[in-house]
From TrEMBL:
EC number: 2.7.4.8
Compartment(s) of residence: Cytoplasm
EC primary class: transferase
PANTHER family, A to Z: GUANYLATE KINASE, GUANYLATE KINASE-RELATED
Reactions accelerated catalytically: GMP + ATP = GDP + ADP
Entry protein name: Guanylate kinase
C-alpha cells in the first residue's frame, strides 16, 4: 500500500502585537529562526533605521514621499501611522508566500491587525504580548538603548493605549520568562495549524486511510 502524501494545509497569518518593548521582535526572531514553515512579512516604514537593523530584512526603510507613492499605488495590504511614522505591509510578498502554503508572521500594531481581519479574517490568528509589569516594560525599553530618552518616554506614554486593545486578540501571552513565552507562542501556532478547517487535504487523506487498496 502506498503512503499518502502529506496533508495539504491552508497557510495562516500570525499577527503578533504588543506595546513597544514587551518583546515581540525577540519572540518573532526566535520563532522564525527555528521554524521553516513560517516567514516574516517585512514591513515598509518611514522611521529611522536603528543600529544593527538591515534594510530589506528588518524593514524596507523608505522616505515619506516614497511611502506615500507606494501607498497610492495600492502596494500595501494595510498601513498605519504609529509614533508619528508610517508603516505598511507590502502585498506582493504576502500573496506569493500564501500561494506556496507558507505561514506568515506579522509584527504589526492593532490598527494593522484590524485591517488584516477585514481582508483575510478566517486566516488571521492574533496574539497580544504583555510585559510582566510597567517597570519591566520601561527597563526593557531603556536596556535596548537604541532609542533616546525622549523616544522611550513617548513609547511608555503610548503603552496604555496599545495595551487597551488586548481584548481584540485571540490569545494573550505575558512575556516574563522568555523561554516560557516562546514555548507558548509555538503551542498556539501548532494548535492553529492542526485546526481541521485549515487541513484542506484531510478528505483525500482520510479516503486513503479508510478505502481498501491493492
Ligand atoms: N500597522 C502596522 N504596524 C506596524 C507595521 N510594522 C510595524 N508596525 C508596528 O509599529 C510599531 C513600532 O514598531 P517599531 O518602530 O519597529 O518599534 P517596536 O515597537 O520596538 O517594534 C509596533 O507596534 C509594530 O508592531 C506595519 O506594517 N503595519
Ligand atoms: N522575557 C524577557 N525578559 C527580559 N528581557 C526581555 C524579554 N523579552 C525581551 N526582552 C528584551 O527587551 C527589549 C525589548 O524587546 P523587543 O523584542 O525589541 O520588543 P518589541 O519588539 O516588542 O519592541 C530587548 O532588549 C529584549 O532583549
Amino acid at each position: 500500500m502506498s503512503n499518502p502524501k502529506p496533508i495539504e494545509r491552508r497557510g495562516l497569518l500570525l499577527v503578533v502585537s504588543s506595546p513597544s518593548g514587551a518583546g515581540k521582535t525577540t519572540l518573532s526572531k526566535r520563532l522564525l529562526g527555528s521554524d521553516p514553515n513560517i516567514t516574516l512579512s517585512v514591513s515598509a516604514t518611514t522611521r529611522p533605521m536603528r543600529p544593527g537593523e538591515i534594510d530589506g530584512k528588518d524593514y524596507h526603510f523608505l522616505s515619506v514621499e516614497e511611502f506615500r507613492r507606494r501607498e497610492q499605488e495600492g502596494q500595501f495590504l494595510e498601513s498605519a501611522e504609529v509614533f508619528g511614522n508610517f508603516y505598511g505591509t507590502p502585498k506582493e510578498h504576502v500573496f506569493n508566500m500564501l500561494e506556496e502554503g507558507t505561514d506568515i508572521l506579522f509584527d504589526i500594531d492593532w490598527q494593522g491587525k484590524q485591517q488584516l481581519d477585514e481582508r483575510a479574517g478566517g486566516d488571521v490568528v492574533s496574539v497580544f504580548i504583555l510585559p510582566p509589569s510597567r517597570a519591566a516594560l520601561e527597563e526593557r525599553l531603556r536596556k535596548r538603548a537604541q532609542d533616546s530618552d525622549e523616544v522611550v518616554a513617548q513609547r511608555m506614554a503610548m503603552a496604555d493605549s496599545e495595551i487597551s486593545h488586548y481584548a481584540e486578540y485571540d490569545y494573550v501571552i505575558v512575556n516574563d520568562d522568555i523561554d516560557k513565552a516562546d514555548t507558548q507562542l509555538r503551542a498556539i501556532l501548532m494548535a492553529e495549524r492542526l485546526k481541521r478547517r485549515r487541513q484542506t487535504g484531510l478528505r483525500a487523506f482520510v479516503d486513503h486511510v479508510i478505502k481498501p487498496h491493492d
